[in-house]
Amino acid sequence: MEIMSIITFAVFIFLVFLLHSILKFFSIGIKKLPLPPGTLGWPYIGETFQLYSQNPNVFFASKVKKFGSIFKTHILGCPCVMISSPEAARLVLATKAHLFKPTFPASKMRMLGNQAIFFQQGDYHAKLRKLVLRAFMPESIRNMVSDIDSVAINTLGSWEGRQINTYQEMKTYTFNVALLSIFGKDEVLYREDLKRCYHILEKGYNSMPINLPGTLFHKAMKARKELAQILAKILSVRRQMKQNHTDLLGSFMGDKEGLTDQQIADNIIGAIFAARDTTASVLTWILKFLGENPSVLEAVTNEQDEIIRAKEENNEEKALNWADTKKMPMTSKVIQESLRVASILSFTFREAVEDVEFEGYLIPKGWKVLPLFRNIHHSPENFPEPEKFDPSRFEVSPKPNTFMPFGNGSHACPGNELAKLEILVLIHHLTTKYRWSMMGPRNGIQYGPFPLPQNGLPIKLSRKT
Ligand code: HEM
Ligand SMILES: *[C@@H]1O[C@H](CO)[C@@H](O)[C@H](O)[C@H]1NC(C)=O
Ligand SMILES: *[C@@H]1O[C@H](CO)[C@@H](O)[C@H](O)[C@H]1NC(C)=O
User: Taking the complete model, does pTM exceed 0.85, yes or no?
Assistant: First the structure.
């Protein structure tokens, strides 16, 4: 018995040793591979200035031209590999997603809370994702169309007869729609408080992280606590009422799920963060592209007028419904083409969790990996005459992994249906009831952090007569 177990033990040790050697052999194999081409610039600061001192697209484009679709560089203190081929994007985001974990700058993590969906992998991520998708899938958001419809009508009404900053006003619209999707109609009670706290929070998170009374950062941390208190109040009211809600908060509160209040708070703040500025930037670009392309605007307006006409003919209720939004193919193509040309999320961040081989190169463990969506969307191989705004190119669907405004794989945007829905509804009322003229400079772009028309696209809106 004794001897048997000693032999078993010896065999076990031998096998462990063998396995270790095999693994070591292979990892040395990978280690021998060259790094991708490219330059790392100065120590520590790397090429951060080259990237941030100009339009970032100039940096990416000149690198791709020099080194090809995969190259290394060094920004913000991190060595990184930038990739801009559809194959590489598929590998990093979808097929080998387990080897590339999402990473964010520390400031974002502080603002959103470290339990928010963006930073997670594995079981906790899968659980959160299921809950978010449940609230944002078409069957859930189809009931929200008439409420979004009223938000859109009120928003546009408030712009009449004055010069507005399109981006700022769109942020109010997308914030209100986000609250509707998170809290349902209960939200009106808390809207102003939530808005005030979120505003302080966002101002603080880009500031120096010095937690002394009076600093923006200190105020932001206080606002975050207050947000958590407001949420706690909403949660306790809901728990007493014992009703089922189909909104995001209801999904997070589902009995079996057992999320803590902290986890719920981090993910509610995260959802507002993911939903508001992204959708508002896209809407701003759409107004610009429609304003610059009269024939496209006319086609969209005709499509939207036809929806109103058909509803009147069938004696339907005036408010838009889900079925109406499925009869907008021209407008949908305009949204797709705007997402492509504007590519507001120029890239995303991942980090290699181990040494990875890709196309004969080594991507070392710990390096950042950035799929460059904008370069993929602006490559003439994927989209001929890429700088031209031409919605008709979406009459045929793009090839896999050449068009990823919402990402791909396990972290792809769960809010994409909601984003498209609220954009369709706003364009419907805008084109059927209003004209607008653009007041600012024509070609300027600002980055803050998403690319936007200069000064947020000042416009003047008036009712059609
Ligand atoms: C046009 C507007 C939008 C664009 C272009 C957009 C784009 C994206 C992209 C590219 C990602 C993936 C990032 C990555 O893989 O690193 C993402 C993730 C996400 N988006 Fe959106 N998004 C938009 C609107 C929304 C809306 C309205 C919501 C609703 C709450 C939302 C919620 C989220 C969430 C929660 C994630 C994280 C998913 C995860 O990590 O599993 N987004 N979005
Ligand atoms: C809420 O949903 C649960 C599970 O789907 C169901 O068992 C319960 O009866 C519902 N309660 C109400 C008040 O609708
Ligand atoms: C996402 O990746 C899968 C697998 O590679 C692919 O089939 C799909 O078309 C991709 N989606 C997009 C939007 O490119």
Answer: yes
